[in-house]
Amino acid sequence: MLKIVGFGSGAKDNMTLEASAAISSAQLIVGYNTYVDILKQYFPDKEYYSTNMMQEKERCQYAIDMANEGRDVVLVCSGDSGVYGMASLVYELADEGTDIKVISGVTAANSGAACLGAPLSHDFAVISLSDCMTPWELIKKRIRAMAESDMVMCIYNPSSRRRAGYLKEACDIVMEVQPADTVCGYVRNIGRDNETAGVLTLKELADFKADMFTTVYIGNSHTKIINGKMVTPRGYKVV
Amino acid sequence: MLKIVGFGSGAKDNMTLEASAAISSAQLIVGYNTYVDILKQYFPDKEYYSTNMMQEKERCQYAIDMANEGRDVVLVCSGDSGVYGMASLVYELADEGTDIKVISGVTAANSGAACLGAPLSHDFAVISLSDCMTPWELIKKRIRAMAESDMVMCIYNPSSRRRAGYLKEACDIVMEVQPADTVCGYVRNIGRDNETAGVLTLKELADFKADMFTTVYIGNSHTKIINGKMVTPRGYKVV
């Protein structure tokens, strides 16, 4: 049996009961180095197999092979394993005979939103700025479409050394449609000891130095600041 | 202190450790009748205050008042309290002096996705078809924008007695842009004993009888069926 488990933000508390039970009963836990290091704090006496970034395919294949040999394997991802996680890759690699179960978790969009207030209380989109596996032109098209239809956006992977200017470019696209003082927010290191969060304008976000541990939120025309929190109302009709 | 807690799908297992701890240590649990009935199974010896649908404002105000009187109050929502939940309404009603903490949970988009396979493994949007508090014209505009930018969509509240034709109308809009055999999926009663899920085409979805306990997924041009599961690949670039 192969369980693909999202363990949430990284704070043990943000894990679901099911994720926690699956990890603690597994015979083998497979994952990316950084994630495995987090889990070793909570589940020290387990067997782990970890690999570096960019070795996703090899790691998933190993988890599949071990499950096919009859072991109880958990493949771990941060957040939800179905959101930019390993679940789809496992389905693509495995054959019909592999027994697979996806265990959902809290993705960064939601754990980060809780830090900021309630930015995602109405229709929203989750978009990654990573162009490793998606053409940048398509990403920009999606950002424009979301802005034009007044969707709140949650942006994953807003920046990296190679993609330093991408967040600015994304904000500039949104500013062609939405005002520069649109309410935005960021959360860095969600659920970790050094978690920080802040509310800022779209214009400020364009020049904000995000890193790969930052999740970014762009509000819509209804998003406002209430007592320092970023809040999108549940409804737009005046009742 | 007022904690606004999303308890996930309704299966106890889908709750985070933090949500479970907050509920079990609360002095008062406030929520919608149906949700309170679910929680009473897991936490029978607690004080509950529940009201009917459409009484959200009164319920949130009661929770705020009790917290302001010094009680440890938990306001519960299914899924994530920040996604079409009560978190934003509480921020709108409370004043600066109320101590508020949002505790994130697994929203139906993610718990349902795990039942279907991995439909949300790339950029996606969450959109509600309920026009109680949002103009239907805006909802349709958003659906068109999602389809035109090839975003996977997760649809909440796809149908109700009054809105029987809305899902069909939404699918018809998508079919103006995407082929009729686009891979779609539904999950009904996520996390409950009578949970059902299925994969179908966009054309079939247009005539599907969804109810208010159903969450619907519309794939993008890359979404495919693998061994009966709905899977959107993590990347679209051929590596």
Q: How does this structure look, described?
A:
The structure is a homodimer of 239-residue chains. With 239 residues, chain A is of the alpha/beta class. Chain A has two domains: 2-106, Tetrapyrrole methylase, N-terminal domain (Cobalt-precorrin-4 Transmethylase, domain 1), CATH 3.40.1010.10; 109-231, Methyltransferase, Cobalt-precorrin-4 Transmethylase, Domain 2 (2-Layer Sandwich), CATH 3.30.950. Chain A contains eight helices and 13 strands. Chain A has helices spanning 17-25, 33-42, 56-68, 87-93, 108-116, 136-148, 166-175, 202-206; strands at residues 2-6, 28-32, 48-51, 73-77, 100-103, 117-118, 124-128, 152-156, 183-188, 196-201, 214-218, 224-226, 229-231. In chain A, the strands form three sheets. Chain A has a five-stranded parallel beta sheet, sandwiched between helices. Chain A has a five-stranded mixed beta sheet with strand order 7-8-11-9-10, with helices on both faces. The longest helix of chain A has 13 residues, at 56-68. The interface between A and B is large, with 76 and 75 residues. β7 of chain A pairs antiparallel with β7 (124-128) of chain B. Chains A, B: InterPro entries: 4pyrrol_Mease (IPR000878), 4pyrrol_Methylase_sf (IPR035996), 4pyrrole_Mease_sub1 (IPR014777), 4pyrrole_Mease_sub2 (IPR014776), Cbl_synth_CobJ/CibH_dom (IPR006363), Precorrin_MeTrfase (IPR051810).
